[in-house]
Task: inverse folding
């Protein structure tokens, strides 16, 4: 039995909101009985884009995360309101617009906050994967059609194939610990979940301060060398993929022009700023 | 023999007059809409020869055409031809439009009668050709799929039961031509076979059905044209609904009164540049035709998109007909094949979309990323392009870019990192420039350290960038097309910056493989020879001077020319001053030569009346002009007898009108247009999009309420002045669409009927071996110019045609000869591009009171005011406007340090202010903006002044209330909105505002 899954490529989302607007366009003013009541012209969207900005000038990284109904296989909303919500054979979760009328409680049943309340029609609403269009022969949901960077892909395959694909391509779901088995997958989710330590290395020679390229930078945590990087032409280095709130780190920099180091405690990402090398005798052999 | 032929032709004409009604009636049988039309009214017409020797009554009665013998004086309307030959040209099939126009404008054909009846009758005759055309494609679900065009791309429009279901991008089918492929570094790249449209395009349905639509003509309650006009109450008093007849009568009467009482020049038609898409309904088309037939004081536009380029950069290398920006030809393939690095400078194509191109350039930049091209972004904001592509961000203080550029050039000079051979053979004046950089002239070497305090960019980063750049093949991406424009050009130092960009390219060998200006946003390998006119190519205007009509469209689509006889002009940015102070001075935007800009013009001009009537057309524009508070005073000024606003939505300055005429959207009328084809404003501008898509812009639904198309509104007014048939040439909008189609190369490729059904045509890409050459390659290689552009004009080459640039030397001039000749005595426009700090920047006295620099760039989700406000889908985006206290506030982006200094948190309401006014925004706190800078968007569609707790503030987001109205430099009409100092504070009345709004909502 093949079922629908959505795959979002996180680094490719540029926050253009075409998916959000197309979804509003599809539902505002349109009634699709059995699928969805008309959405309100003014109000929350069933697809949202979250933003996370990390670091400090000039080393800033911005990540956007499109979120929508996950069409969970163990959907808390379905458990909460089995009389009003159904799971289709193709994996899509539909909140019945007639049966769910007035059921504001359904909004709170979703731990992902993916259900919006439509005050005009008095119904809870989710992103329905454009089931009404797929049933009418469309090959893809509208969010995929309008995405300029191809950050969104919709695939209809059986669950075992999807699990293999996810393992092979490093696809992950949001908050797997909730155990709801979402059908929306993310590629490159690390960029959303992890943080970095970065800095810019410089040195003074003959009264002139310049960026230092090619310096060796070591990241130390708990006395262990975790990673090594080299600075680029601007003297910049960056250690990505670190766990937020993971405590104390030390950065050690070595170059023929000198040495520098810095300590930091990692909550969110840290940009250490300019790190000036101090002329020092060559590192003792270790 | 000759006699027989004449006799046969006379007989033919007689027969046609007898048969004509039958043909019309059978058309009505085929097309119910036509049958309905015939039922609308009874008309008695006489068609025949001027001498009366042939002629017949042709009438519509009871929904049917009849014809009978009769005299012309028995008819309401008459159509008389000089002779049989002329008549046959009008009535035989396969009409030659050139012959028809020739006969009409030389009085070989005369139509007479009450204009309203005559126009209705001739439009009815014309409609028989179009009424049974198949429009759109029927879909499996019973809906009909139409097509349209927008500022952000063409769309399919699905309609069911007279209502728009949805709009989607156009996806190609198998019958559409193949897509081009570019081979670069062992890879092959082809763009997606669909339109990558902009967010504001997809917002269209929500705009059509917006609750802010104006559905009826309205008159201000305390405006009495025959008594007290109460101009002081504009924007305060409410409106009362009136009928179209009343509205047309009122406006026509006022126009006549203006002409009678004040004389030529008393009426002005200030328009917006980017309203709806299409070649017929555009401001340069239908509005210009309408206004020319009345006569008006022209609002002379400043080159707002091009400022620094037109007044500055152009003098170093020419390109005056491109308003000083490069063409970008061939840039996509060259950059992908050759470039090692791209420097984006004041360039954010992911937000500005190459103006109209949506995200068509995005995949091309992602290809460059895949190929390992390095990116650098120079901007006070780490903008969406920098966020997507990555690469080094160089946060520069606004309006100091020229200092940064000079320091980079200093490093190139001192470290020998420039193309010495190119400089020696292709440029002039380098020694003088070099001496300036080295401080030989003024004792100040322009070192990276020199610029650091000014720009905020560490000297070490400048050296690193200069060395990287000087050792690589670099594409310099500038502004919205990547090949010019840019917000840095719209400030006090805009000319210095744009000039620097060209000078840097001159040092790096501009035109050599991989060394050019461009950001993969323009220069795809499309076929540029396929002719279809762009929006500034004249349309139906009949105007030959103030658009590009004369170049092609006037010959290809013959139509009666129209002329505005009034020579008086007002500079756009000074229009309110002209009204309030009674005088204004400006400098023209004229691309024919580099010198045209030096001549001033003044208002008022002898012989003409000052302005007494404002006919405003085309959407909200208050927030697109500097220091826009002046407009309110102008609207309320005693000297303004009458204000009309022809608007689709109740927004912006519509509230200041005496009469509001409700226009409909492009989805409710006919039009035709090509994606991103601006015509005369940017020759071959469609090279920003991956495929040339020409779309029928179907009338998808009937106009909402009583709204009408702009064309029909103009017709209604002109009918009351005896000018209706002159304006319409006997046709409706669909007839003009057909004429645009016929005037293009489309008929060679697709049948009209098929075009109407399918709705779009994709022009096949250029053959690989015929692709356009790369811009400036000819110059770098010392050859004759080989680009497919008709500019500069032949007279502009100093020596031989097509040899060298437009400059007097034919070379890239580091110290422009044209400026030496014309501005040597103007300290604000020195021929040597020395650094002059902004007159409203961090060195200004004003910075002590207003210590932050405001930049208000083009918005990302709306297109200027289009799609902003109006409860549109875009308005619901939290990154566009934030919902606080039931109101959607414009965002102000600011740095965490600046926010903390004022105790401002994310999404707090902040007051942004200076001596010019105060605007309330919602704070968006993040490190994406350089410290000391606050960033918002220009062009809020909303304008809402409120008084709360004794404080007057604007809450619609009109940031241009705060910007200076001063020109960048003396001797130019150039706006400088990005030179704007402000202070911010957490809005003390935020709670009072929220409480008031909550109460209001509860009361409702």
Result:
């Amino acid at each position: 039995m093949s079922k629908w899954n959505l795959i979002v490529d996180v680094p490719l989302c540029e926050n253009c909101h075409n998916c959000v607007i197309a979804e509003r366009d599809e539902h505002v003013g349109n009634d699709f009985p059995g699928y969805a009541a008309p959405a309100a012209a003014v109000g929350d969207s069933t697809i949202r884009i979250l933003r996370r900005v990390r670091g400090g000038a000039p080393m800033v990284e911005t990540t956007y995360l499109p979120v929508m109904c996950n069409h969970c296989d163990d959907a808390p909303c379905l458990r909460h309101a089995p009389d009003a919500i159904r799971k289709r054979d193709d994996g899509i979760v539909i909140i019945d617009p007639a049966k769910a009328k007035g059921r504001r409680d359904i909004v709170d049943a979703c731990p992902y906050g993916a259900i919006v309340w439509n005050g005009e029609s008095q119904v809870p609403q989710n992103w329905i994967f454009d089931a009404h269009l797929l049933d009418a022969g469309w090959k893809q949901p509208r969010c995929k059609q309008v995405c300029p960077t191809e950050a969104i892909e919709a695939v209809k395959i059986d669950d075992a194939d999807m699990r293999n694909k996810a393992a092979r391509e490093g696809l992950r779901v949001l908050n797997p610990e909730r155990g709801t088995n979402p059908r929306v997958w993310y590629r490159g989710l690390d960029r959303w979940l992890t943080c970095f330590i970065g800095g810019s290395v410089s040195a003074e020679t003959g009264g002139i301060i310049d960026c230092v390229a090619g310096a060796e930078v070591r990241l130390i945590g708990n006395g262990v060398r975790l990673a090594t990087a080299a600075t680029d032409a601007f003297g910049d280095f960056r250690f990505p993929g670190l766990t937020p709130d993971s405590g104390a780190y030390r950065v050690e920099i070595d170059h023929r022009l000198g040495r520098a180091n810095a300590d930091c405690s990692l909550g969110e990402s840290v940009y250490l700023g300019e790190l000036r090398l101090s002329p020092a005798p060559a590192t003792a052999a270790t | 023999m000759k006699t027989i032929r004449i006799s046969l032709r006379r007989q033919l004409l007689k027969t046609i007059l007898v048969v004509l009604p039958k043909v019309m009636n059978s058309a009505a049988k085929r097309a119910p809409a036509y049958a309905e039309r015939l039922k609308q009214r009874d008309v008695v017409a006489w068609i025949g020869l001027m001498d009366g020797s042939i002629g017949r009554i042709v009438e519509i009665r009871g929904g049917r055409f009849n014809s009978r013998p009769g005299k012309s004086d028995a008819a309401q309307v008459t159509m008389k031809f000089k002779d049989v030959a002329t008549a046959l040209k009008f009535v035989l099939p396969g009409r030659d439009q050139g012959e028809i126009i020739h006969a009409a404008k030389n009085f070989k054909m005369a139509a007479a009668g009450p204009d309203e009846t005559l126009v209705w009758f001739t439009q009815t005759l014309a409609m028989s050709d179009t009424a049974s055309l198949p429009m759109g494609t029927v879909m499996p679900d019973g809906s009909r799929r139409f097509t349209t065009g927008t500022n952000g791309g063409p769309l399919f429009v699905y309609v069911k039961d007279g209502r728009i279901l949805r709009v989607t991008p156009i996806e190609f089918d198998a019958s559409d031509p193949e897509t081009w492929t570019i081979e670069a570094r062992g890879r092959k790249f082809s763009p997606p076979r669909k339109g990558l449209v902009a967010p504001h395009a997809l917002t269209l349905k929500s705009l059509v059905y917006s609750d802010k639509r104006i559905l009826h003509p309205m008159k201000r309650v305390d405006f009495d044209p025959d008594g007290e006009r109460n101009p002081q109450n504009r924007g305060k008093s409410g409106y009362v609904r009136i009928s179209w007849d009343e509205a047309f009568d009122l406006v026509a009467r006022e126009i006549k009164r203006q002409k009678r009482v004040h004389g030529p020049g008393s009426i002005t038609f200030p328009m917006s540049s980017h309203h709806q898409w299409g070649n017929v309904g555009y401001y340069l088309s239908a509005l210009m035709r309408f206004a020319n037939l009345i006569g008006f004081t022209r609002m002379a536009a400043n080159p707002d998109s091009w400022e620094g380029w037109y007044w500055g950069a152009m003098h170093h290398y020419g390109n005056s007909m491109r308003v000083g920006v490069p063409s970008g030809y061939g840039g996509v393939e060259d950059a992908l094949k050759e470039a090692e690095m791209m420097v984006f400078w004041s360039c954010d194509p992911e937000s500005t979309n190459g103006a109209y191109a949506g995200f068509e350039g995005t995949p091309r930049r992602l290809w460059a990323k895949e190929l390992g091209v390095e990116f650098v972004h120079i901007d006070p904001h780490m903008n969406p392009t920098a966020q997507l592509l990555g690469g080094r961000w160089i946060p520069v203080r606004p309006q100091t870019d020229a200092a940064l550029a000079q320091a980079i050039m200093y490093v190139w000079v001192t470290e020998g990192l420039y193309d010495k051979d190119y400089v020696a053979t292709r440029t002039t004046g380098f020694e003088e420039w070099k001496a300036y950089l080295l401080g030989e002239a003024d004792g100040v070497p322009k070192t990276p350290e020199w610029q650091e305090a000014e720009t905020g960019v560490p000297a070490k980063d400048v050296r690193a960038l200069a060395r990287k750049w000087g050792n690589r093949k670099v594409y310099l991406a500038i502004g919205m097309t990547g090949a010019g424009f840019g917000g840095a050009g719209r400030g006090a130092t805009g000319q210095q910056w744009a000039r620097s960009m060209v000078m840097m390219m001159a040092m790096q060998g501009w035109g050599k493989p991989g060394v050019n200006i461009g950001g993969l946003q323009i220069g795809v390998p499309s076929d540029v020879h396929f002719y279809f006119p762009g929006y500034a190519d004249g349309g139906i205007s009949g105007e030959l001077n103030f658009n590009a009509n004369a170049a092609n469209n006037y010959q290809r689509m013959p139509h009666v020319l129209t002329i505005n006889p009034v020579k008086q002009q007002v500079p756009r940015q000074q229009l309110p001053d002209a009204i309030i102070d009674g005088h204004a001075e400006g400098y023209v935007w004229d691309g024919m030569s580099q010198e045209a800009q030096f001549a001033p013009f003044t208002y008022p001009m002898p012989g003409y009346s000052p302005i007494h009537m404002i006919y405003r057309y085309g959407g909200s524009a208050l927030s697109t002009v500097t220091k826009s508070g002046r407009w309110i005073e102008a609207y309320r000024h005693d000297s303004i007898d009458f204000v009309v606003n022809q608007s689709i939505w109740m927004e912006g300055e519509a509230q200041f009108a005496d009469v509001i005429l409700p226009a409909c959207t492009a989805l409710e009328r006919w039009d035709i247009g090509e994606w991103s084809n601006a015509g005369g404003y940017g020759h071959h501008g469609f090279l920003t999009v991956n495929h040339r898509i020409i779309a029928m812009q179907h009338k998808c639904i009937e106009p909402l309420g009583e709204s009408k198309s702009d064309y029909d509104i103009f017709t209604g007014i002109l009918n009351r002045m005896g000018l209706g048939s002159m304006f319409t040439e006997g046709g409706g909008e669909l007839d003009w669409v057909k004429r645009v189609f016929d005037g293009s190369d489309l008929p060679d490729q697709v049948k009209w009927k098929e075009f109407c059904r399918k709705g779009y045509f994709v022009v096949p890409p250029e053959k690989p071996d015929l692709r356009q050459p790369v811009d400036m390659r000819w110059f770098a290689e010392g050859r004759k110019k080989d680009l497919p552009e008709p500019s500069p004009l032949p007279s502009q080459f100093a020596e031989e045609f097509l040899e060298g640039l437009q400059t007097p030397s034919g070379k890239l001039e580091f110290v422009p000869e044209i400026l030496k000749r014309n501005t040597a005595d103007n300290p604000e426009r020195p021929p040597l591009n020395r650094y002059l700090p902004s007159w409203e920047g961090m060195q200004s006295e004003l910075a002590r009171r207003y210590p932050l620099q405001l930049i208000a760039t083009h918005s990302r989700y709306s297109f200027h005011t289009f799609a902003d406000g109006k409860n549109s889908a875009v308005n619901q985006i939290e990154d566009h406007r934030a919902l606080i206290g039931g109101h959607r506030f414009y965002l102000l982006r600011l740095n965490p340090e600046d926010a903390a200094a004022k105790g401002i948190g994310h999404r707090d309401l902040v007051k942004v202010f200076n001596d010019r006014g105060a605007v309330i925004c919602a704070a968006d706190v993040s490190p994406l903006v350089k410290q000391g800078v606050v960033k918002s968007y220009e062009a809020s569609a909303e304008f809402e002044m409120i008084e709360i707790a004794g404080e007057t503030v604007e809450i619609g987001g009109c940031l241009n209330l705060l910007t200076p109205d001063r020109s960048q430099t003396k001797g130019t009409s150039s706006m400088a909105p990005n030179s704007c100092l402000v202070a911010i504070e957490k809005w003390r009345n935020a709670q009072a505002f929220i409480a008031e709004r909550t109460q209001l909502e509860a009361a409702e």
Observations:
- Chain B has a mean pLDDT of 96.
- The first strand of chain B starts at residue 43 and ends at 49.
